[in-house]
Specification:
alpha+beta, four-stranded antiparallel sheet, 23% strand, binds 2-deoxy-2-fluoro-alpha-D-galactopyranose, 377 residues, Ribosomal Protein S5, domain 2
């Protein structure tokens, strides 16, 4: 792209991916989640280009880019462009202060791995433009407009967890977020000698976005049925297993299972927080396994590769717990593992994964990191 010849960035932003300890598919059901940002980030460099409307975005690693006009922010058939376009569209709805800019980004957040490279992309762009043009957006505005961008331009009716974690995280802490009230607190993560290890299946099954929206709709169907007996139930957050069992006969078994998983998962998050605070990592690990079981058999968002990796850990005492993480249908498992065992464990897991799934395993340690920031802030 031509602008690269005269690119003199005036601002650099780092925008992280995220992990989630527990609380999967609970965010859009108004429950609790326990995420944090990780040290894998997208770096954005920006300059104003003097134009009123013309913008350029170039992705360094992928050596691809595009030009757009703020007058015509139409949905693209190139997937990653929609995260950018969606954010620009949402910003334009909120302010008329946006002008032409050039942006070069470089991503170290693995794509399709369940660590939310999409939220990192949306939030980093919004954060940088807010700084550069003085748009007056708060961090929470950035979270909400990035989520809206994903709904309208990428077509995934996601909850708020990923954007919230990317923007609001604090080093060394996880966030206990109540997705209904949006109240949150930071919980220090002191888990030595254990570490958080991500195993990447390196598969990303295509179903993800369509199946995700389907799960959300199934939960809404469950809520509508619950409301007939309990008008106060606004979301699965308000429901109990007793309420659900009362109407079991009237529900499709798939809808019943989806709702039961969510109701159980929201309680697991709170139990995991208590266990973390009491330094009872053994219990945290057990809860991770329970979550995986629910995601695999009741919510049905796992896949053979994820199930294999979780099952594999069960023969390794050094692993306290493991589960698939994120939306599902591929991506990473999150594992709580003794630090001394990591090398031997990943060697054995890689070999077994290759043999069982004929795929290469990759892995990385994740430590709770800060949210979106200006470099050298
Ligand atoms: C994806 C979504 F973007 C999140 O909002 C969340 O629902 C998650 O899947 C599942 O917990 O990452």
């Amino acid at each position: 792209m031509q602008f690269l010849n005269y690119f003199k960035p005036e601002l650099t932003i780092e925008s992280p991916g995220r992990i989630n300890i527990i609380g999967e598919h609970t965010d859009y059901n108004m429950g609790f989640v326990l995420p944090t940002a990780i040290e894998k980030k997208i770096t954005f460099k920006f300059q104003k280009n003097g134009s009123d409307k013309i913008c350029h975005v170039h992705s360094k690693g992928y050596d691809t880019g595009f030009e757009l006009s703020l007058d015509n922010i139409a949905i693209s058939n190139v997937e990653w462009e929609n995260y950018i376009l969606g954010v620009l569209n949402e910003i334009s709805k909120r302010t008329d202060k946006l002008r032409g800019f050039d942006c070069v980004l470089e991503s170290h957040v693995p794509i399709g791995s369940g660590v939310s490279s999409s939220a990192a992309l949306e939030c980093g762009l919004a954060f940088g433009l807010n700084e550069m043009f003085g748009l007056g957006l708060s961090r929470m505005d950035i979270v909400e407009l990035s989520q809206a961008a994903e709904h309208t331009y990428a077509g995934t009716k996601c909850g708020i967890m990923d954007q919230f974690a990317s923007v609001m995280s604090k080093e060394g802490h996880v966030i206990l977020l109540d997705c209904e009230s949006l109240e949150y607190s930071y919980i220090p993560i002191q888990i030595q000698p254990y570490k958080i290890l991500l195993l990447n299946t390196n598969v990303s099954h295509n179903l993800a976005s369509g199946e995700y929206n389907k799960r959300r709709a199934q939960c809404e169907t469950g809520v509508s049925a619950l409301k007939k007996n309990h008008p106060g139930v606004k979301s699965l957050r308000d429901a109990t297993m007793d309420m659900l069992n009362d109407i079991k006969d009237t529900l499709d078994s798939t809808v019943y299972n989806r709702c039961a998983y969510v109701i159980q998962e929201k309680d697991r998050v709170l139990e995991a927080v208590e266990a973390l605070k009491a330094n009872n990592l053994k219990r945290v690990g057990e809860l991770l396994y329970e979550t995986h079981e629910g995601l695999s058999t009741m919510y049905e968002v796992s896949c053979p590769e994820l199930d294999f990796l979780v099952e594999f850990t069960k023969n390794h005492e050094a692993v306290l717990g493991a589960r698939m993480m994120g939306g599902g249908f591929g991506g990473c498992t999150i594992n709580l593992i003794h630090e001394d065992a990591i090398d031997d464990f990943v060697a054995a897991a890689s070999k077994a994964y290759k043999k069982a799934c004929n795929l290469e395993l990759t892995w990385f340690e994740a430590s709770p990191s800060k949210g979106t920031s200006i470099l050298n802030e």
